[in-house]
């Protein structure tokens, strides 16, 4: 079996028309095969403009069939498979190769000479994968959103189009792409549907049907899902709805973010769909260790923690009116931590109640996304491919910075609102005082007029008195 360090590209041309070939000759070492295929998949994902040819050669047709499944998402244009096998085995292998892939050519054969020649040729090729020339010099890693010399404002425009707080699972499309690359995903159960935007990603990537579980959908969501033949609205609460649906290949849990609901959902999936991959949102702050209840809540009061109207903030351990609060749409538990509290605690307790053999990894971004699956060879390759996300200290640092900055934004919004309210109250006092002053001015004017009339009257009386005196003296 060739190890990952033995992988060799057979040829590479100029970046404008890159076509890279890998020859992988393998015996029965499935762990080594998985490692090699993981490296090829990672390389092909990083260089997605490359037209890649892969030659798989083995004397074990079943091993090749597993390899083809693991490479289901790789951008392979040409695939040649050689293995001594029966016609039935080769027909099944050919079906696995062709499903979901647009191939320029496909060759499957049983020629012993081909197998031997390929096995002999592999060690003779010299350039390791690590030295492959970079294919893209246009910074495509950001999907065309970075600036160029002729369009220096492209990134700024993309930034303006984003919400102030990123929160949607649609941002994790590339993580789902990795899942689809390692598993055949035909049926998806999605708990918590948002606007339906995320639901269509699962069909875009290859699922034929998605059951969208949403207990209280609005009319816009109903119309959007009804317009897509692969999306099926399920107007039932979870976890009760899970038992009423077909067993899925992928479960996406992004519904009610509290211990009771999430533990029940995960426990049901572990018991009834052990081969599925489970993706769960909101497994980090603020819901990892603090319950969250949509209002009105479907969680029995006996399973709820005490709540209050405030919201969590990274700047204080207590709920605060300056934190993430839903203005009555949802409430948080007063206290964080402890037993039976929070999404991640629910997942951990559901796993603890099952036999060992499950693996949980977290992508530390946008409130945290967990990937849960059984420990198998295939899932080992999946988790290996996810390592750049799950082990990224950069993502974790950026997430911590993101929630801290947004916490400050919420504080400033609250303080600004409080300041505006204080200013409104001060303006009201000033207006009242101004009105009072105007009244006093009016009273003063009236009093002045009275005094003037009195002065005039006194003057007339004085004149009359003087006139009488003058007449008497005559």
- Name of the CATH architecture of the largest domain: 3-Layer(aba) Sandwich
Order the strands across the largest sheet as they lie in space. Answer: 7-6-5-8-9-16-15
Q: End-to-end distance, in Å?
A: 151 Å
What is the name of the CATH class of the largest domain?
A: Alpha Beta
Order of helices and strands: EHEHEHEHHHEHEHEEHEEEEEEHEEHH
The name CATH uses for the topology of the largest domain is: Rossmann fold
Going by CATH, the homologous superfamily of the largest domain would be: Vaccinia Virus protein VP39
Uncertain stretches: 1-19, 94-115, 121-140
Class by helix and strand content?
A: alpha/beta
Overall mean pLDDT: 80
Number of domains: 2
Q: Count of helices?
A: 12
The beta-strand count equals: 16
Rg value: 36 Å
Shape descriptor reads elongated
Proportion in β-strands: 15-25%
Main beta-sheet annotation? 7 strands, mixed
* Helix content, binned percent: 40-55%
